[in-house]
Amino acid sequence: MASIDDETRPSDGLVTWLGTVAGLVEGAGTAASATAERVAALEAQLGLVLDETHRRLLLAQDGWEPTGRTKELAGPVRIASVEWLGRAPRTFSGPALEPLTGAATARELLDAGVTLGDCLAVAVDPFYGATYLVPVRDGRAGPEVVTLAGWAEEDTFIGEIYPSFADFLGAMTEQVATHARRFVARETKEARAREVWHAEPAVVVRGLPDTRQQLASGLLTLMGRLARSQPDAPWEIATRRWDGSPAGLERVMSEATRVLPDGAHVLFLTASTRLADGRAWQVSVTRSWPAAAKDHVLLLLRSAGDGGPPAPGEVDALVVEAAEILSPSSVTASSTAANRTATERGIPQPTGYRVWLREDQLGTAAADVDGGEIGRRAVGGGVMLSSPDGWPPDQVVVEASALVARLREARPEPDDGAPTSDEGGGRLSRWFRGRRR
After folding, report:
1. Tell me: the pLDDT tens digits for 326-347?
2. Which of these, 391, 404, 331, lies nearest to 195 by C-alpha position?
3. For residue 132, what are the CA distances in angstroms to 11, 45, 77, 135, 146?
């Protein structure tokens, strides 16, 4: 990417754009600059004179279409190169170029006999379905840049109109810089989570109580455990008023339950609290009647507060408490990065750094399964699987999920007369006799 001679006195918008994108690629440059001869040939081909700031951009940087990590940092905005400009369409069916207010659709304006006219497409944002156009009047392009937004012709509308190409570049600079900041922040957070998975743990409970009353009672107990350091801490439920009582919670849950066209009932509910030490918890519930595979309770630590992240043992205790209070089929505890990895790869749940399975989820061959480095112990009428805290997220989700699948293999039919705990010589006591880690 060429530098700009100080004598050309480029606009601030151009300077900030070039400085921003150069920083994203750490000085490695982007596209090569176009020569003055190529830009002049483009103008002759198009039969117009480019906006001065646009011309200076091409002479310094022939378009912007990053790849690799730079693409992840910069986001979806693409700015046309000389070659692209030479083959871009010139007439668009859409709103008029005159300053418009509101969002009249392209189809409405076309029906009224209004067309966009002659213009030059100078940039696109494929994520938002936006094309940035410079109007051509009397053989000159610009000065304004018009946002033509929308994925389909009938939904197309005028977006923001930038007074000049320099203003457009300034807006794109802010958009790219904002995207880069958010991307780096997410990377940093995920890197922190990889180093300390339990920094902001997500505990997922599956296989919930049958009735709304049972679920409300269990949730209330669990929320009290989360806020044990400040019993009077208020919980807020999004879009609902709750007086803090068990009956009140059951009433709120009833109000938040929707009836689907097929007759099924679905509950979505989120409660949150922030304690005096800065620790912030969020409890989210998804429950269907009849029960569905997606049903779960999510316990999410949104902020660790002044005391720092919880220790792995504290997360282990929360998993056991959730298992004992809600009597679910499984409870998992993991990091956001590990959960995202499992979702992206389609790895079956339950999986995570900690996995608790109720005893009746274990197959008859469970005692013979070798868990490798994943520890296990009998607790709360089930088995707790503990992956090494230092494992990266991708290794955790793959190996924990595979172990869960092996433990469930050859699962027997329920036997009402069989013991369901360590008492009476149940499967767990036989399994863990001499196997505790």
Report:
1. 999 999 999 888 888 898 888 8
2. 391
3. 19, 20, 10, 10, 6
Rounded CA-CA distance 187/49 in Å is 43
Q: Which residues contact 427 (CB under 8 A, 6 or more apart)?
A: 359, 362, 364, 366, 367
Contact 389, 312 (CB under 8 A): yes
- What number is the average pLDDT over the span 264-268? 89
Mean pLDDT of 390-414: 82
User: CA–CA separation, 34 vs 54, rounded Å?
Assistant: 12
Structure tokens at 399: 């190996």
Q: Mean pLDDT across the chain, nearest whole number?
A: 77
Strand, coil or helix: what is 218?
A: helix
Specify whether domain 6-187 bears CATH 3.40.1580.10. Answer: yes
Q: Are 334 and 202 in contact (CB under 8 A)?
A: yes
Say which amino acid occupies 25. V
Residue 78: both structure tokens together: 């693409």
Note every long-range contact of 304-311, with CB atoms under 8 Å and residues 24 or more positions apart, other chains counting.
304/199, 304/200, 304/278, 304/279, 305/275, 305/277, 305/278, 305/279, 305/280, 306/277, 306/278, 307/277, 307/278, 307/279, 309/196, 309/198, 309/199, 309/200, 310/198, 310/201, 311/198
Distance, CA of 55 to CA of 52 (rounded, Å): 5
Three-class SS of residue 126?
Answer: coil
